[in-house]
Amino acid sequence: MAAGSLSKELFNASLKLMPGGVNSPVRSFLGVDGEPLFMERGKGSKIYDADGREYIDYVMSWGPLIFGHANAEILGKVQKVIERGMSFGACTGFELELAKLVVDSVPSIEMVRFVNSGTEATMSAIRLARAVTDRKKIIKFDGCYHGHVDSLLVQAGSGMATLGLPSSPGVPEELTALTLSLPYNNIEALKKVFESDPRGIAAVIIEPVAGNMGVVAPKENFLSEVRDLCTTHGTILIFDEVMTGFRVAMGGVQEKYSISPDLTCLGKIIGGGMPVGAYGGRKELMEEISPCGPVYQAGTLSGNPVSMAAGIKTLKMLREAETFGKLDYRTQYLTDEMKKRSDKQGLDIAVNRVGSMFTLFFQKGPIFNYEDAKKSNLKQFSKYFHGMLAEGIYIPPSQFEAWFMSLAHSEQDIDKTIKAHEKVIKAL
Ligand code: HOZ
To answer: For residue 30, how many other CB atoms are within 10 A of its CB?
Structure first.
């Protein structure tokens, strides 16, 4: 579906002032051969573009908006706090309150440091892992995305997958030589690396449920075997739970599957829609961070009261609501119905879902790793995307991203989405 005239006007003007007219590549719609919509406002499950068109939103700001857009209680809390000052660059009780909520909820976190984005969180966790192990090499998995940290832009998912980029210019070879990227869900590949270099790996970083090559769940025992290998070799295991933390369970994947990483990276939901990131873990590791220890990391806006307030309200509401059961039920209903209709139509679609995050891959599947995900029919996905948009359904403009359900999505929204899906796949 073509963008409306006001979105087009804004995009043409933006192209002159910002690279590609955007501030993050996936939203450019390049992955679906289109031009981006400019959004004006959101309420509950809906967003409204500059041309006044309404959409049921399954992007949900890429995950943070678990209570939907412009939730009145979260806004109320933010408004109250913002009136007293937006940033002090000094300590506030809000940081303490959010820290307590995080430490109480995420099993492996005893101490936490707040930063401003997931990228900062993973970058800092890697630095800490290298410092405490006095080793240089790190392992990641193909198709996992941990933000745009130099040493992690190797076989990365999200925008890199969307645009088909294996790596980025500007990252010195010396740095990427220290990063090994292995196939997700392949424990033998990891074992081999540890066999050839048993004392050289500082950290293994992983999305314990991948969301940036589309959703890919870990195979049974994969995470526990990764955990065991890291323990045996004195390697720091970092779970990147930026997407999954407070999304698949209050305490993220580590709670859902009872696996304890050494360090955890968080973002998205803990900021309730405001910019935020965090990393945390065992006390003795976190005490290596400056000013307690020698590992340096800092930030003017880190722990700013506005992000903290939005996060506090969101996590408190999550604790009270029967969030995860409800979300799970709604998402399963939606994905089951979509799958049934695709099967009836004879269309190859594989649905990968963990809780309220899911991806419809345009292929037969199964999809266990990035190689599998890349077999999807991208032309078909692109047609589907534009068809859904025309029906008033806004999904990620990339085959390699997760869709998110929120507590604001109603039965009517879900039924409308199923009907739209049925109509659109018939026309593919
Ligand atoms: N990397 C984000 C999703 N995994 C996309 C961010 C954006 O384009 O806004």
So the answer is: 18
> Is the Cβ–Cβ distance between 106 and 254 less than 8 Å?
yes
Indicate whether 166 pLDDT > 80.
Answer: no
pLDDT digits (tens, 9 = 90+) for 201-229: 999 999 999 999 999 999 999 999 999 99
pLDDT at 254 over 90: yes
Lining ligand 1 with CB less than 6 A are 24, 26-27, 62, 158-159, 212, 401
Same domain? 312 vs 361: no
Q: What's the whole-model pTM score?
A: 0.97
Of the candidates 36, 41, 66, 63, the residue with the CA atom closest to the CA atom of residue 52: 41
Distance, CA of 146 to CA of 122 (rounded, Å): 6
Domain that holds residue 302: 72-318
1 with 7: CB under 8 angstroms? no
Q: Best substitution site from 18, 23, 62, 403 to test ligand 1's pocket, by max atoms within 8 Å of Cβ?
A: 62
d(CA 30, CA 162): 8
Residue nearest to atom 4 of ligand 1 (CA): 158
Q: Distance between terminal CA atoms of the chain?
A: 14
Length of the chain: 428
> Which residue type does 61 have?
S
Residue 225: burial class (beta carbons within 10 Å; 0-12, 13-18, 19+)? middle
**Residues 383, 249 within the same domain:** no
Active site residue 268: yes
333 CA to centre of ligand 1 in angstroms: 26
Last residue of a domain, one of 302, 318, 334: 318
Q: Ligand 1 mean position to 249 CA, how many Å?
A: 22
Residues with Cβ within 8 Å of residue 400, at least 6 apart in sequence: 31, 143, 157, 158, 161, 162, 212, 213, 214, 373
Would you call 136 a catalytic residue per the annotation?
no
Quick check: is 348 catalytic? no
Given a cut of 90, is residue 141 above it in pLDDT?
Answer: yes
Of the two residues 160 and 333, the one the predictor is more confident about is 333
Q: Are residues 242 and 149 in the same domain?
A: yes
